[in-house]
Amino acid sequence: WREIDVAAWRRGVRSAWRKPPAVTLLPVTAARILIVEDKDSLRTMLHHALERRGYGVLEARDQPEAAKFLQQGQVDLVLSDLRLPEGNGFGVLRAAKEYDSDIPVIVMTAYGSIEDAVAAMTEGALDFLAKPVDPDHLLLLVSRALEQRRIVAETLLLTEELAVRRGAPPLV
To answer: How far apart are CA 120 and CA 129, in angstroms?
Structure first.
């Protein structure tokens, strides 16, 4: 896929075709991802894949352990299994949304059904993945979710700053 430099093309420049700019991703050093998974092997694989990309990774085996991390306010994104030994992915999703209604939550399961996917999305999950999880696909979802969250926060801050400069009362 290539883009064309329209101004150069109109001037008759034959080398008007150029590569699109590289995609810029969220600085990952500050992003903390909570993995809620009861299977040690999958949790370790996800941990390593995310850590290699520079994300900070927190691990929980069940819903109560995940809720502790969420209450401490250390989480930017949640990646949760649907079936857990204590609690479930829906409980993790609700706890995350109570902590921060804008936090992205990706739910994954090996026993997925359409009803579960619809229920997760209705309750505010960003995405619903079937296991086995493709690490490349997951990393793409994570980077998009964190970038979207950054853009929303930046837009809110810029809107507030503009309101202050124009003398409008600050947003609540």
So the answer is: 11
Full-model pTM: 0.73
* Cβ(92)–Cβ(105) below 8 Å: yes
Through-space distance between the first and last CA atoms of the chain, rounded to whole angstroms = 43
Burial of 158 (0-12, 13-18, 19+ CB in 10 A): exposed
Which class for 125: exposed (0-12), middle (13-18), buried (19 or more C-beta within 10 A)? buried
Q: Which whole-number Å values give the CA distances from 43 to 1, 4, 68, 96, in the listed order? A: 36, 44, 18, 19
Residue 19 pLDDT class (50, 70, 90 cuts): very low
Note the pLDDT tens digit of each residue in 127-168.
888 888 888 899 999 999 999 888 888 888 888 888 778 876
> Hey, what amino acid is at 105?
V
CA–CA gap between residue 138 and residue 146 (Å, rounded):
12
CA distance 81 to 76: 17
* Residue whose C-alpha is closest to residue 4's, from 21, 23, 17: 17
